[in-house]
Amino acid sequence: MNLNPAVKGTLVSFLVGITEINIDTVEIVDIKKGKSSPSYPDVIPKQMVVKVEKRTVESREVDFLVKFCPPGIVIVEASVDLEDILGEHVFDIKRSLTVECRAILWEYHCDPYFDEEYSVYCVSDYHGDPEDIISEHKDSIAGLLKTERIPLDEEEINATLKFNIKYSKDDITIVEWDGAFVFDPRGDFASNIELFEIANLQLLKLRVLEHELEKRLERAAWLLQKTTKKKIPLLKSHEIRYSLREIIQIRTESVLEFAATERNINLIGDWYSARLFDLITKKLHLEEWKTNNNETLDALEDIYSMISENFSMSFSTTLEFIIIFGWLIMLFGYFALFFLEVLQKKP
What we know:
Helix content is 53%, strand content 18%. By secondary structure, the chain is of the alpha+beta class. The protein has two domains: 9-189, no CATH class; 197-334. A nine-stranded mixed sheet has the order 2-3-4-5-1-6-9-8-7, sandwiched between helices. Helix 5 (190-228) runs parallel beside helix 8 (286-345). The longest helix is centred in the last third of the chain and has 60 residues, at 286-345. The radius of gyration is 30 Å and the shape is elongated.
C-alpha cells in the first residue's frame, strides 16, 4: 500500500525584473479574490498584461504570462500542471521554468544583474484538512521550499513548516524565502500570488537601491579623501551640492513609496491579505533591507556634510588669500603711481 500517494498541483514560478523601456500593454489585470478581504489600492500600479503564450519546457506545455507594472517593472509568470507536485523531478522543472522566464525578461531589456525569482506550489485537488497532507509529505515540502535536494533535519523541517497562515479550516499557506506552498480546495491562488509578487517587487527595488547607494558611498569616500588633502577642484562644489540634493531626494522618495505600502496594509488591518503580506515581508526580511539602506543614507549624508564643511573651509582660506593678494596688488599699484608722480614733479 502506498502511504504517500502523488499530490497533484500547479507550479507557478515568476521572475520580477527592471527595464528602462516603455512596454505596450493589452489590459489591466484585475485579481478576483475569493477570500473576504478588502482590496489594497495603490500598493503598486495595476499589473497590465503584455503577452500570453504557451511554450514547451521539459516536454510539458507551460503557460507564460508577461505583465508590466509602470514604471519599469516586468513580471514573467510560468505555470504548469503536475501530476505529482512533490516529486524529485520538480526541482528540474522549476529550474527550467526560471531559465525560460529569465530569457523572456531579457527580451524586454531587463537588467541581467537584478531580478527576483519565486515559486508557488498550488494544491487544490484534495479534501479535508491539508495539514494531513503536509504531515505525510513534510520532508518533500520543506525540501522544495528551500530548494534543497538533500534530506533535511527534523528540526529544520518543523521550523520551515511552522511559518504558515490559515484562513479557513481546509486551507493553509506556508511561506519561505524561495517559495511558498498554497493549499486551497477552491483554487483561490491568484490573490496570494499577487501578494508574493508585490513583496518580491519591493525586495528587488531595495536591492537596486542598495547597489546605487554603495556606488555613491564609494564616490563620497573618494571626494572626502580629496577634500582632506586639499586636492579637490573648485568645480567639484557643484557636484557636492547636487549629490547632497540627490541623496535627500532618494531618501524622500523611498520613504514615501514604502510608507505608502505600509499605510495601505495597515488600513486593511487584520484581514487575511494584510496578515499574509506581513508574513511574506518578514520571511523576505524587507525591514532589515530598509534599515540597512537607511543607515547607508545616513552615512552618505554625514560624509557629504563633512565634504561640504571641508570644502567651505578650503574655499574660505582660498578666498582670504585672494583678498590679501588683491590688496597687495592695489598697494603695489598705489606705490607705483606715487613714485611716478614723484618722478614727474622732479625738474
